[in-house]
Structure formats: C-alpha cells, structure tokens
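On clarity, I found the account of how folds are encoded harder to follow than it need be. For illustration, here is how one protein appears when written out as sequence plus structure tokens:

:::
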Amino acid sequence: MVERVDRVLRDELGIADGLADPNVWVLDPCTGTGSYVIEVLRRIRRTLEENGVGAALGEELKQAATRRVVGFELLPAPFVIAHWQVRALLAEVNVELDDDAGERAAVYLTNALTGWTGGPGPHLPFPELERERDLANEVKRVEPVLVVIGNPPYSAFDGTSPDEEGGIIDTYKQGLRERFRVRKYNLDDLYVRFFRVAERRIADFTGRGVVCFISNASYLGYRSYAVMRERLIGAFDRIWIDALNGDSRQTGKLTPDGSPDPSVFSTELNPEGIRLGTAISLLVRRDAAEPKTAAVVHREFWGAGKRADLNASLDLVSADFNGTYSPSAPTADNRFKLAPDATLAVYKAWPSLAELSISEQWSGVLEKRKGGLISHTRAEIEDRIARYLDVDVSFETLQLDGSGLTIPASGFRPRIARSRLIEAGGSSAGRIAQIMLHPFDQRWCFHTDVSTIWNRSRPEVGRQQAVGNTFIVTRLQARKSDEGIPIFATKQLPGDHLLDPNTHPFPVKIHGDPIPGTGLAVHGGDSSPNLSQRAQDYLAELGLAEWLEPNHPQADAIWFSALAIAYAPSWLTDFEEGIHDDWPRTPLPSTADLLIRSAAVGRRVADLLDPNTAVAGVTSGSIHPTLRTIAVLEREGGGSATGAALAITAPWGYKDARGAVMPGSGATAERPYTAAESACEGEAGRLGERTRDVRLNEAVFWQNVPDDVWSFTIGGFQVLKKWLSYRVEPVLGRPLNIHEVNHFRETARRLAALRLLGPELDENYRACADGSYPWRTVAVPGQES
C-alpha cells in the first residue's frame, strides 16, 4: 500500500520524490502500533538514499517523523509502542529525539473521528491530554494532509455515530431510502466513518491527494453503501480496487475452484485469519476541479498466496501493472458498484427453503369473498356464519346484509355454494380458526373445504394448521425493493397475501402419512419432519438420523434454524440481492451442536412472531426496561381513554371505490427520546436514533415507538402501519377494544425485542455460515483462482 501511494504521488500528482517530498503530509488516522507510519518512513529513507543525500539523511528523516508523517491513536498502549518504533527506526540512522527540546514523533493520542471542526474542545483532566488533543487538532484543521492511509477498524456493532462526531456519515445516508429504497444497516460501522473522514479531508479541505485503506470489503457492492460509493466516485479522479476475498460467509473462504481462500491477514498461528473479506482501495484526486466521475478499475486475489501475489505485482512495469486491472462500470442502475459481485457464490450454494421441503406446491388460503368469511372477533364471525347457514333466512335477506358471500364472482355461484355447505352439514363442515392475513394481523375466520365457499381453501394447509403445526412462510421472489425480512412464522392459517407477493407456507412437520413424492398427507398417522431427501441425508450425515423418527421433538430443527438466520440483520445485508431474486437461502450448520443452538434461537424468534405466545420480559412478567416505555397508550392532559376515545380517526387507511382498504398518510409526531425513555436511547443503534408518538386521534396516542420499530418491515408490509390501516373507524366500524389497543403495544415491543436480539442473531448466523454444510459446490461466476 505504501509503495502504491508513493508511485501514484509521482505518476498522478507529478510529485517526483513521492512520499519523500517535504510538502507531502501523510496521516494514518488509526495507527495502532505504528505499522504504516514506520513503513512510510522506510520508503522515505530509501528515496533519500537513492537521491544521495549523504549525512543529511538523519535530519531529513527526523523532520518527516516529527512533523509530517502523522499517526492518530485512541488507546494508550499502542500509542506508546508506535512512539518506541519511531525512535527505534531513527536510531538506525543514528538520530535521537531530544526530549528536553520537545522533540517527539508526530503520533498523537486522540480520537480521529472528532475535532475536525469547531473550537478547542472541552477541558480535560490532565494537561498532557489537552496538549495531545491540541496538536492533533492542528493536523485535522490546519496542516495540508495529502495522503490518508491505514487499516481502519471494522465494527458493525459499535453503535451509531455519536454527537461529538458531528453527524460524520449523515452524507452517506442522504437519499438512501428515497432514491435507492434500501436500508442503512451497518453504515455506522467504524471503517465507514474513517472513509468519510478521509474523503472529506482530501476532497473538501486539501483539494487533492490520495486515500489508501485496507478494510472490510462490504462497501464495494452491498446496497446499503450506494450513496457512499456515489460520493467517492464524485470526489476522486481514479479508484483502484484490490479485492482480497477470504470471507467466511460470502465465499466460504474457498476459491472458485474449491481451494482454501484464507484472509490476507492469515498467520501461522491463525491460518484462516479474520472472518471478513477485505479489499484495498486506492483513491486519487488530482485537483479541485469539479465535477468528477472517477475511472474505477479492480482486480481479484484468491488463495493462500494472495499476499505474495499482491506484492509481486509491484515488480511489473507500469503498462503491465495497469493491465492487471479490469474496468468497473459503476452507475445509478447498479447502485455504483465498485467491483463485480462475487458475494452471492456461497449464498447460491446454500439450500433454499423450497429445497428443504418435501413439497413446494402449497400456497396460503385465499378468501376473495370481500371479508365475508373473516372477522376481527370470534363472536362476530360465529354470528355471521350462523345467520348465513340458517335455512330460515332467505338468500335475498342475506343479500341485503351486503355480505361478500352473496356476491357472484368468477367461479363463485353464491346460491349454489351456500346450498352445498348446508347439505354438507353446515357449520360442522368447517371450523372457526385464526388466520394471519398480514404479519401480526391476526383475525378469525370460518374455514371449510366445501367448494367454492373459499376461492382457494387449500385443504392440506388447513389440515396441517388444525393439528397445531407451525408454518415457515416465505415467497418465491420479492416484488418490492423494500421488502424487509422475507420470512414469517405462524401457527395460524397463513393467508395468501400474508407476504407480498403470494405466500408459500412450509409446515415444519407433516402430520399424517405423507403421500410419496408430494408432501401431502392423508388422515391418521404420526408427525414426521417436512424435509426433502437431501435434508434428511444432511441430518443422517451429522449423526442425527433419530430426528427423522415419528414425533421426534427436534424434527423441525432445520426450519427453526433457517428462521433464526433469516432474522439476522447481517444475513439480510450480506445477500440482499440474492434474497430478492429467488427463494431465501440459509446455511445449514456443520455440527449437531450448532444446529441445536441455532434452532433454539429460531424458536425464540417464532415466539416473538406469535401474538398468542406470551414472552417473558416482552409481553408478560417483569418487562425489560428498554421495552417498558415502548408504545404506552397516553391521553393528552392525562386520564384514561375508553370507549369512543379509542376510535382511530387519524387517516391511517380508507376504502376505495371497490371496497379495498388502502393505506393513508396517518399521523405521527417524530421526536427525540425523553429522559423517561433513556433506556431506548441507550439502544438507539438497534431501535433507531429517534422515536415518535403514533396517533389514534387528536387526543389519544401510543407514546414512544422508536424509528426502527416503526419502520420494521416483513414481506413488503410495514407491520404497524399496515395493521393501523385496517383499524380506522370508517373501516373497522367501531372504536378499538382494549385487546386491540394492547395488541399494538405488544406488537411494537415484540418487534423491538427482535431488533435487540440482532447481535445474537448475527452471531448465530455467522457461526452457521462459517464452514457450513456443503449443500452444493461453490462456484464464483466469472472469477479465476
């Protein structure tokens, strides 16, 4: 990296002596023990020796080390080691630093992410610390830094950028949702903040210069980094990308031909190195002229020898060296990708949910009777069906009620259908059951297989649900770019539009005897796992063949493991494009212990998704302090809210001319957290930086629904907002009852609990993905080892 920067200074910026030029200021903003500082000084020494400076070498090198080769470090121990290393290097040329004269290495104890603008900062308890800060601030605000180089830390869970950083990456979030319709997960990662520091320092302050970082490679292509990439392309003239691969999740640490692909940071003691794939980026800005559209090139390095290959490429002459790169074509259409996306290779090698199942033929139940078979309460649907089946009530009288059960439609002859149901036994030919129409939108229905009462009754789905089965619900591919999580779990009848588009429910077990080759079941028999032969072979290879026996309690473990992985924020971010394009795919854990552990996490997720399951600390018992203040019902001026005061009159939804419920604008008041909500503010990195109050009407509201709880989206539906659209008084026909008021509160807390579970879900996902079971051969299209 240092050698590349030196050459680019000479070739692109016309600085003949490169790093040795006394006007070239170099900054490593995350210097650690000083590796980059030392290597830069060594490169300067070689140039000076080549130029024949003779006895002036020591003084020249000291001037560089004490003035213009700068390192920032936050932690005292590596800070001390960096100073020791600089002194040791100077000693090699017989130069010492005079402590009495105040001579010191230009390595400063400071937070590199703060202090770039504003005043001197707050008073610190020790004069020495204030001195360090002031010297560092002079570099940040005054000195003409021309090169920023280093290895910034990677930490997706470091939390959001704090106030003292001055909204450092807000620029990378602007327009992200509006223009690209994507999430901003992990944009507060530390390495992204350092990129913004470097971009701003070179592009906005110095006006020209070089940035060279080795970092997490996720910014090269992930959707969340679209604005960041666009900014970099618009701020620099040329960008070189050396993709070093070696990611445990994206490529399984395998080359395209299946050979080991360790991290570039591998050592003898740690042969695989870090889990994350890395890349070296070199960005050059020649001058202050605008606008800019960077020419972007890239190359790939694979295998155990990638570090040697990278260094060997420096031996090539200029023309041959540049020939090792291929051009990239970043545009708005591909979200300004800086390199081809090889990240989906392992994702596509994992099994899809459809491949885990005996059958992928089932869909959700479909009414299409304008709600005639569905109601918000059990009593209401029971009364309606009793009247519908009462032979003393004429069909003409039922028509006056306006029920959808009396309106002809394609394939539906309402008089004939009613007669068939009565002849089949009336209410005994069906049952009252709960149905999940949309995520967390649970209602009551009368379900029957008598033709054609339902448009599609899905008999096998009904039979599996009737015996208490759980369905893992997904879809073939996404229809919306902001789909959110593509999987839901429910014990209720899954509606055909539970997710958008059409829902495919996979029962975790098959109750009854399966019909070979279909996955369908006949009456009688025990439960067996709903697993394809390949999935059964996987369990057998793990030594878990007994799980395939009838009624085994772990027969559904693979399904719940998949559910846990699907709710991991990192899985959704890592493979968002692949997830959108096909059935969701999840890794199979490589050991029995991992599978058991992952399934246990998935069962907790399923409990949080089930409105009928009380979850200790979330909806029952002693509520977790962070959740306790979420979605609390309040009334302006205080007091209770009952009866008509619980009517939703805010414009959350309305019926169009066809009678379909359409979403409305609603009414919320966005705001900061209050002191009473400080527990939520402490979890801002997972729940959202701000919160809002959600209005029922002018007087009553649910208080404190954090941003990322309010925006929680499953299967294309923003959960809370979708639920509200069906509960406005003109649609519901009445105020909310207390059960519905509490349902909103508990749903908000369930969603918040899922957000808080994020780190554990990510850890589980990474553990399952690292060295996952080889379902099929990994192949990276277009790449060569």
About this structure: Residues 738-756 form the longest helix (19 residues). The chain has a mean pLDDT of 91. The two ends are 22 Å apart (CA to CA).
